[in-house]
Amino acid sequence: MKKYVLVFIIGILLVPAAFYLYLRSGYAPVSTSASPLPFERFFAKLAMRATLSHDVPKADKIPPTESDLKAGAKLYRANCAICHGIPNAQQTGISKGMYPHPPQFFKPGRSTAYDSSRPFRPANPKAYWKVKNGVRLTGMPSFKGSLTEQQIQELSQFVGNARNLPPSVIAVLENNPEKPVQATTKPEHNHHTASNNK
Amino acid sequence: MGKFLIGLLIGIILVPTGFYLYLRSGDAPVATWAKPMPMERFLVKTAMHATIDHHETPMHLTNVSTDSLVAGAHIYLDNCAVCHGIPGQQPTAVAAGMYPRPPQFFRPGARKIDDPPDEVYWKVTNGIRLTGMPGFRRSLNDGQIRELTGFIENAVSLPPAAMAVLEATPAKSKQPSLPKSQHASLKHKRA
Q1: Which CATH architecture has domain B59-170?
Q2: Size of interface A-B (CB pairs under 8 A)
Q3: Residue-wise pLDDT tens digits, A167-183
Q4: What is the pTM (predicted TM-score) of this model?
């Protein structure tokens, strides 16, 4: 019996030891272009789904108006576009080089033709959770320290309707490169210190 | 002997099962502001250093010219500043919300980075998976990555010409902005 317990413990210790040696070997995937770790996607999705079902995201069930979507578009342009893309522009180097790859909401070839007969969809609660809390080990930031509840709501409404946006909303995305919105930092953080390197 | 193997097998199977149940529970950290997983930092650093030591190309920086630092500053602004910061400005919302946090090269009191040039070169080229750090091998060429490496190694002691490039960005564009190529393609489209 004693022997039995001993092997049992050896078995338990063997797994982390092997994993450690695997990482130690220099052959584990570290570069963003390497193939995933064994079971990586499986475990990551598992944890994501379990967390979401645990911490039920609250998002408005009321469908957005066109002006909500415009507000969302401005926030998207300033905070998300660099990784998640905008219509008719090439993907940035940042976005291309990340692992996991950030989902592209405006893939070339994906139709963005507006169908005004389709009603706007309410905010996607999962998108709301992700914008608010971020997703660790992916590059997706949490915006709860820099955007208000309402802004997070507008962003998740915008994202949920990315495939059916009226031209006025698309225009906000495309025509604003020179003046991004001042919404990314809370006022108290927003002091412009003169540089001391001049 | 049979008993021996069974005990060993049960022990081996128990570990992934425990890990599976941990993730399954909904208490594993998923939000970027949650506490790290047990031993996360240790395991991740082990893998990163082992890989880089294995594969890095030796790179020596000697007499980095001002021109090359200025070129590096432009590349930095377009590709890195969103996450790694600009002198005298607060981190962007993107940088502040990520996990792991991107190092801020120009935060007040920042010292020269510890990473030797070959390590920086490797990280810029290949990226670091599961951190948000992109690999730029498909969007920057070798010369650009070298300029960027020289720039990052000298971030705390830049000549005024290179500082001027960073500071020329209007304060409001400290928010994530798209690289120039995108602006250009947009303008082109509208024209």
Answers
A1: Orthogonal Bundle (1.10)
A2: 278
A3: 999 999 886 554 333 33
A4: 0.80
